[in-house]
Structure formats: C-alpha cells, structure tokens
Amino acid sequence: MRPGQKELFAASTHLADAGRPKSKTRTANELQGGFAWGSHSLLARAAAELRAQEERAAQLAAEQEAARRAEREAAELAGAAERAALREDAELAEALRRSEVDAEEEALARRVSRCEEAVSSESTGGGGDLPRRVERLEASLGAATEGSLEERVGAIERLIGPEVGEAAEQHLPATEPLAAVSLADAGLDTGRPAAPESTMGGETTCIVCFARVKSHAAVPCGHLCACGPCSELMRECPYCREPVMMWMVPRPV
C-alpha cells in the first residue's frame, strides 16, 4: 500500500464505525448502572424511615413508662395519706377511749371514798390501790361480793344504804363545781366574747343535749362544754366551731 493510502483507510474506517449504532452490551451496562443508583436511593430512604419509626416508638415507650411511674407515685402518695388518716383516727379514738376510762376510774374512786367515809369516817382521799380499798370495805362489812370492780362497789353501796347518799351530798360542793370549770370561769382570757346562758346549756349542763353534766373539754380550744356521749359524735367544738383533735376529761387538783 502506497504512502497516504494507509491514513486514508484508517480515517474511512473510523467514520464507518461512528455511523454504526452502539453495541447492545454497552447500552445494557448503562441501564444496569442507572438501576443500581435508583435501588440504592430507595434503600437509603427506607432505612431513614425505619430509623424514624424506631425513634418514635422509643419516644412513645418512654412517655408511657413515665405515665405509669407517675401513676404509681400518685397511688403511693394516696395510700400513704390514707394510712396516715387511719392512724390519726386510731390515735384519736384511743385517746378518747383512755379519757373515758380515766373518767370512769375517777368516778369509781369517788364512790369508794364515799363508801369508806360512810363505813369508818375515814377515806384515803382517792389514793391507794382501788381493788385493795374495795377488799378492805368488803372485809369491814363482812361481805364477799363477786363480779367486776364496779359491780362489787355497787354491792357495797347497797349494803351501806342511805349513808352513801349522805356522803355523796357532802362531797358534791367540792367535786361537781370543779368538773364544770371552764377557761372563762377560771378567769383566763379565751379571746372570745361571752355567750348568753341560754346558748351554753347552763353552768354545768352539756350544751348539746342539755341533760348530762359537762365532762369533756375540746382540744385544742379547751372549751369544757359537752358530756361524754355527745363528744363522741362531734368533730368540732359546739361552742366555737373550731376543729377538735380529741376530747379530754379535765382533772381538777
């Protein structure tokens, strides 16, 4: 081949190749690359959505756990408050029971003192062991009674007869007015205006039932205004309407 013909042949071959369509292999590779890019984008979006769902689920679980914890704490506080209220009620009931027991013991001791004075004109003045004093009275009367201490004292009173009533009358001026003394009667300033007699139930009478003797004072106001049965039914002082923590039986000395 002569010089120049070789270059001419190469140029014509290049032009012929340019005029022919691209090969199927090259087109398939290009399509495969496009599909791969699209699949990668879809997978990335799916992964992002999955992470977002997991985060929302974790947040929801945390909120639910916080709500359950708040409910448990509220229930514990309510239970503690209820237990405290029950404990306070029990303490008040026990204090009231003790005050009533003390009042009954004091009344029984006064009855024994009257029996002693009726029998021998001597009394221990309310001191000493009460059962032993009752035994001495029984021995003095030559009686052997049975039952509770109060029943035995009642039997002794029946044996003695009218003398006990006379002794009781002699002791009334010294004991009953003391049991009816209030803070105002004692000359202490209660900070409250005096109430008319018609609203107080009398100097010695319960201002609620107007039948029994005033024997119980409200705490903390200190008003001696109610009898034992009426005080059990009241949560506030009937005189000043202040809340009552407990009712106490005063012990004059």
TrEMBL record:
Among Pfam families, the record links this protein to: zf-C3HC4_3
Where in this protein does the record put region Disordered? 111-131
Species of provenance: Emiliania huxleyi (strain CCMP1516)
Q: What is this protein called?
A: RING-type domain-containing protein
Q: Keywords for this entry? A: Coiled coil, Metal-binding, Zinc, Zinc-finger
GO MF term (any one) = zinc ion binding
Cross-referenced InterPro entries: RING-FYVE_E3_ubiquitin-ligase, Znf_RING, Znf_RING/FYVE/PHD
Q: RING-type domain spans which residues?
A: 206-241
Coiled coil ranges (UniProt) are 43-87
